[in-house]
Amino acid sequence: MARILVTGSSDGLGRMAAQLLIERGHAVVLHARHAARGREAMAAVPGAEAVLVADLASLAQTRDLAAQANALGPFDAVIHNAAVGYREPRRLVTEDGLAHVFAVNTLAPYVLTALMLRPRRLVYVSSELHRRGDPSLNDLAWERRPWNGNKAYSDTKLHDVLLAFAVARRWPEVRSNAMEPGWVATKMSPRATGDLDAAHRTQVWLATDDDPAATGTGGYFHHLRPKAPSGATGDPARQDRLLAECERLSGVRMPNA
Ligand SMILES: NC(=O)c1ccc[n+]([C@@H]2O[C@H](COP(=O)([O-])OP(=O)(O)OC[C@H]3O[C@@H](n4cnc5c(N)ncnc54)[C@H](OP(=O)(O)O)[C@@H]3O)[C@@H](O)[C@H]2O)c1
User: Fold this and answer.
1) Is 221 left (phi over 0), alpha (psi -120 to 50) or beta?
2) Is the Cβ–Cβ distance between 142 and 134 less than 8 Å?
3) CA 202 to CA 221: how far, in whole Å?
């Protein structure tokens, strides 16, 4: 039995992954953006051990989430699942002066990775759309570019793969992988037509399975199989640049090995 934290497990694929993990006998800690969502998550996922509460759009709350998790941890695995979608009509600015989608989808998993006690496995939920992300990593806070919600989301999903691969290089003892669930109908994308029943299984497999294919590091997966990610993700200099930018914008340093 493993003990796993799933971020964004009040809904969608995070909730489905948490339910499947519990069905398979694992211990699961949920995460929700505020207390009421936390109560809903605990009601929707019977058997969950606890729920941690933090709005990932806030750097202060994300740091606090890492502290809450460390008080319960270390975990065997963390699934970085929480995200906001691609339909923000304008650049929403967080209390830290950052683009909302970047804060939640990129900076929060970076900060949690850096501040949480190191788990044995890390899983970063990305998307096929990472291929459309801007590999230059310029203007991550969207201060100079005209806003484009779709591009902003795609950028963050590229960042999630870069983050997974950067961590895999830095921390060889941790299995750090990224994956895409397919385009499936959740709150994020209600009209999607992909296979919902397959969409949460790869993250559960990467977090817990002893299958040799699931126990490597620095891989990218779709439906329990390796898949080639964007070529931009394999560049160590780009991976390190993302870490440096995230450190600059968050004030949190990623520890070395
Ligand atoms: N659905 C797809 O077709 C698809 C395709 C490719 C990749 N993905 C990826 O799959 C993952 C899960 O997405 P989903 O489809 O399950 O979306 P979802 O149903 O919208 O669920 C997203 C989860 O993240 C949480 N969350 C969002 N912003 C948060 C914040 N500021 N603080 C704390 N929690 C926050 C949500 O909480 P609330 O419930 O309170 O909003 C929810 O629990 C994401 O990483 C997404 O990028 C999805």
Assistant:
1) beta
2) no
3) 7
Ligand 1 atom with minimal separation from the 16 CA: 16
Ligand 1 atom 1: residue of nearest CA? 184
Quick one: which of 62, 133, 52, 130 has its CA closest to 95?
Answer: 62
- For domain 3-250, the CATH class is alpha beta
- φ/ψ region of 218 (left if φ > 0, alpha if ψ in -120 to 50, else beta) reads left
Type of residue at 207: A
CA of 85 to the centre of ligand 1 (A): 7
pLDDT, tens digit only, all 257 positions of the chain: 999 999 999 999 999 999 999 999 999 999 999 999 999 999 999 999 999 999 999 999 999 999 999 999 899 999 999 999 988 888 899 999 999 999 999 999 999 999 999 999 999 999 999 999 999 999 998 989 999 999 999 999 999 999 999 999 999 999 999 999 999 999 999 999 999 999 999 999 999 999 999 999 999 999 999 999 999 999 999 999 999 999 999 999 999 87
Instruction: For ligand 1, say whether the CB of 218 is within 6 Å of any of its atoms.
Output: no
Tracing tokens 């902003």 back to the chain, one arrives at 152
Distance 15 CA to ligand 1 centre (A): 10
Question: Would the CB of 187 count as within 6 Å of ligand 1?
Answer: yes
Contacts of 158 (CB under 8 A, 6+ apart): 126, 130, 131, 133, 134, 135, 230, 232, 233
Question: Closest ligand 1 atom, CA of 82?
Answer: 24
**Would you kindly state where each structural domain of the chain is located, as residue ranges?**
3-250
Is any ligand 1 atom within 6 A of the Cβ of residue 62? no
Output the CA 206–ligand 1 centroid distance in Å: 18
